[in-house]
Amino acid sequence: MSNVLITGATRGIGRALFDGYAARGDAVTGTYRGDKPDGDGWVPLDVADAQAFEGLRDAYPQDAVDLLVCNAGVYLDKGESLPDGYPAEMWAQSFAVNVTGVFLTVQSLLPKLQAARAPKIAIISSQMASSELAPGGAYIYRASKAAALNLGRNLASDLAGMGIAVGIYHPGWVQTDMGGGSAAITPAQSRDGLMARFDALGMDSTGEFLTYDGTPHPY
Question: Of 45, 97, 134, 202, whose CB is crowded by the most CB atoms within 10 A?
């Protein structure tokens, strides 16, 4: 049994992962904003609020984190227009969640990760993070997910000496509120692939950027 913490776990891919680890018998904890979900295993956290991290380590009920999944994310700039869209506050809010929130989560829980036998961090990025695949548009989301990818790669380097493996993942185009109903795969398909990737992550593969099905993703 592993101790798993998932940010942004109330819906979409995060909720699918929460349910998957619970069904497997792991000690899974999810973070939420707003109303507390039914059942056990939840701690409050708004990753865009720096002060909210002050109590995260104490609120987490386990002594160690075996797997930290940084899943919380927003895609606010759908439909924005280059000539008159993409307001500055949208950039700030998106980076606060998609980038700073990832860093502060890792930083806050570093002692709990160090207490684990073979700790892992999984950062949910996106194929839209790729600089090689750059079709334009969605500038804020693409830039923030590219920053999350860069953050993960650098964390992998710095945390290697602590024995903490870091992986960065594209979860697929998933049928969620963010991905839309016409997306290619279901949350369950994404979850099953991601859980397999997280299981396989280790120090020999730290810093990897993979699609949910195990395909190496272009940077």
Answer: 45
